[in-house]
Amino acid sequence: MPGSVTISHHQQAVMISHDDAERLAWVLSEAARLLEAPGADRLTDEQAGALCRGDARHREELAHWARALAHDVQRKV
């Protein structure tokens, strides 16, 4: 369907609107930036831990995943 993005896993699929896909990509990009940023904009270890299932040591992995997924969504929008 034009103007939408389908996210699927095996037999299950979720469709979101073009606007929502753009917003999702922006949120993922911003999350990655805040995880990677030096200085005052950087998420604290406590905040990163909340996003990383309780373990802030996975900050870099989550940032990479968020940036890659944002890029993938942006390519499909």
Describe it for me?
The protein is of the alpha+beta class and 77 residues long. It has one domain. The chain contains 3 helices and 2 strands, in the order E-E-H-H-H. It has helices at 18-36, 45-51, 59-76; strands at 4-9, 12-17. The chain has a two-stranded antiparallel sheet with strand order 1-2. Helix 1 (18-36) packs antiparallel against helix 3. It is elongated. The N and C termini lie close together (11 Å). The relative contact order is 0.18. The mean pLDDT is 88.
Q: How would you summarize what this structure contains?
A:
By secondary structure, the chain is of the alpha+beta class.
Task: Give the tags.
77 residues; alpha+beta; two-stranded antiparallel sheet; 3 helices; 2 strands; 57% helix; elongated
Q: What is the count of DSSP helices, taking H or I runs of 4+ residues?
A: 3
Strands ordered across the widest β-sheet: 1-2
Instruction: Report the C-alpha radius of gyration, rounded.
Output: 14 Å
Largest sheet: 2 strands, antiparallel
User: Beta-strand level of the residues, as a percent range?
Assistant: 15-25%
Q: Which percent range fits the helix content? A: 55-70%
Strand tally is: 2
Please state the overall shape, judged from the principal axes of the Cα atoms.
Answer: elongated
